[in-house]
């Protein structure tokens, strides 16, 4: 994009001149580091291939969700800067292509599943003046609109084939693989802080983040294992993902991964479903052996945690309080993204000490608390529309092509995310480690079924994203 490069060079020159003056006049070295960081981010976002952009965004989200408070605090706004730069890159690129006579089409994502969640973010902006924290709600809703633009417009606009969709997914999965491998190496080297309350978290803020992140990407690993030549790196990453999922002790993550992988295997790998069932039986056998063989029933205490199983570690208690709070503001709720503020102001003082965190730990209930019945209607509108599309396009394929299996893997990511949100609250949390890969996977799913669908009878490929006008 020559135009983007020229504009970036002009802005960089002016910015360097201004920062240089500030450093010399005020002797403030902090401006230098701000300059250096911004130029690095701009350079990465503007000049690398599109396939690596999700990798950069995931890396910045990882930093802001680190177990180190210093790292997460200093990198808090970096993720939003990266999203803004990606949007700017798309805008400049579209402007340049139009100036060259190309026709730009974004019609593939215009459906109920897309507009349902966009309606939620837009309503969050419009009703923010009625929130208990108006500025916070406005910022949160605006940041969700930014994320949705990145996921549904900016990044998919560069995907002209199913191979490019595949590259997006593989590069995102590689971020998880790298974090897991480096994390386990650090664990073996004795780096402190990688466990909390006897549960593995590696570099992340808490064990649930690690478990749900692994659950979200497990369908991608299965698809890669079934369609590519098995290498030792893939085996190592698969073992690391399974270990992270299990050692995190997150029961919700295990359930999300199990449901997603079962549906994926049923759709694509029925002949190998028996082997998967046998593997599950072996795991159950190991459970019984360890449960009866370990002293003090430690296996039962770590995995099942029967004393908190029925209450979800305090989740059911906070859900009851949330439902009572909803009765006070049922229509538009307390304001977009205001649940954490409600915790800080003592609205959840009745919650027992067994519950940890500043969220309801249920994305659907938290959306209802934030935005009332209007918000939960938008969420269920999205979920219902997506499930309808998935059933219509994935059941009874004419032929199981590679694109079909890839789409089933993407659907597995979305299903794992939908289940995960029963136990965690991140579906509209832009700063979360999960919201971006989830919504981007939704966008890629829509892209596959509308433009690269070669497995249904009577299908005709849609027009490419951009074409030279005659």
Q: Mind explaining what this structure looks like?
A:
- α6 runs antiparallel to α17.
- A hairpin with a 2-residue loop joins β2 and β3.
- 68% of the residues lie in helices and 2% in strands.
- The chain has 19 helices and four strands.
- The protein has two domains: 104 residues; 305 residues, no CATH class.
- The strands form two sheets. The chain has a two-stranded antiparallel ribbon.
- It has 470 residues and is mainly α.
- The longest helix is centred in the C-terminal third of the chain and has 32 residues.
Structural class: mainly alpha
- Low-pLDDT parts are 290-299, 461-470
As for the number of domains, it is 2
Say how many strands there are.
4
Global geometry: globular
Give the SSE string: HHHHHEHHHEEHHHHHHHHHHHE
Please report which band the strand proportion falls in: under 5%, 5-15%, 15-25%, 25-35%, 35-45% or over 45%. under 5%
Q: Count the helices. How many?
A: 19
Helix content: 55-70%
Largest sheet: 2 strands, antiparallel
What is the terminal-to-terminal distance? Answer: 22 Å
Biggest sheet, spatial arrangement of strands: 1-4
Q: Please compute the radius of gyration using only Cα atoms.
A: 23 Å
Q: Overall pLDDT, averaged?
A: 79
């Amino acid at each position: 994009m020559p135009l983007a490069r020229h504009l970036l060079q002009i802005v960089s020159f002016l910015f360097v001149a201004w920062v240089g003056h500030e450093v010399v006049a005020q002797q403030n070295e902090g401006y230098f580091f701000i300059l250096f960081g911004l130029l690095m981010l701009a350079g990465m976002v503007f000049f690398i291939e599109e396939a690596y952009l999700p990798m950069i965004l995931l890396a910045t989200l990882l930093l802001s969700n680190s177990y180190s408070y210093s790292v997460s605090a200093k990198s808090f706004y970096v993720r939003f800067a990266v999203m803004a730069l990606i949007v700017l890159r798309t805008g400049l690129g579209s402007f340049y292509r139009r100036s060259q006579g190309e026709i730009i089409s974004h019609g593939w994502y215009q459906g109920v599943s897309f507009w349902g969640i966009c309606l939620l973010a837009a309503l969050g902006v419009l009703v923010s003046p009625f929130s208990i924290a108006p500025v916070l709600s406005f910022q949160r809703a605006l940041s969700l609109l930014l994320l949705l633009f990145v996921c549904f417009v900016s990044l998919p606009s560069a995907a002209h084939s199913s191979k490019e969709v595949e590259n997006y997914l593989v590069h995102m999965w590689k971020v998880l693989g790298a974090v897991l491998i480096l994390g386990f190496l650090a664990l073996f080297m004795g780096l402190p802080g990688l466990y909390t309350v006897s549960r593995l978290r590696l570099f992340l803020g808490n064990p649930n983040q690690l478990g749900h992140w692994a659950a979200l990407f497990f369908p991608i690993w299965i698809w890669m294992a079934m369609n590519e030549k098995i290498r030792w790196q893939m085996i190592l990453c698969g073992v690391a993902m399974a270990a992270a999922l299990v050692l995190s002790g997150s029961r919700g993550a295990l359930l999300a991964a199990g449901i997603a992988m079962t549906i994926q295997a049923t759709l694509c790998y029925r002949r190998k479903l028996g082997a998967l069932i046998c593997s599950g039986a072996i795991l159950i056998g190991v459970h019984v052996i360890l449960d009866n063989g370990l002293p003090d029933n430690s296996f039962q205490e770590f995995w099942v945690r029967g004393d908190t199983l029925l209450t979800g570690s305090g989740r059911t208690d906070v859900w009851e309080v949330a439902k009572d709070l909803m009765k006070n503001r049922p229509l538009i709720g307390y304001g977009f993204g205001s649940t954490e503020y409600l915790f800080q102001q003592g609205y959840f003082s009745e919650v027992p000490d067994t519950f940890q965190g500043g969220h309801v730990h249920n994305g659907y209930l938290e959306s209802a608390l934030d935005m009332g019945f209007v918000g939960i209607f938008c969420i269920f509108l999205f979920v219902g529309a997506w499930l309808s599309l998935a059933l219509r396009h994935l059941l009874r394929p004419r032929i199981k092509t590679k694109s079909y299996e890839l789409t089933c893997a993407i659907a597995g990511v979305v299903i794992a995310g939908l289940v995960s949100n029963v136990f965690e609250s991140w579906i509209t949390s832009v700063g979360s480690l999960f919201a971006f890969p989830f919504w981007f996977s939704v966008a890629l799913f829509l892209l596959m079924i509308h433009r690269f669908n070669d497995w249904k009878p009577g299908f005709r490929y849609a027009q490419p994203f951009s074409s030279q006008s005659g």
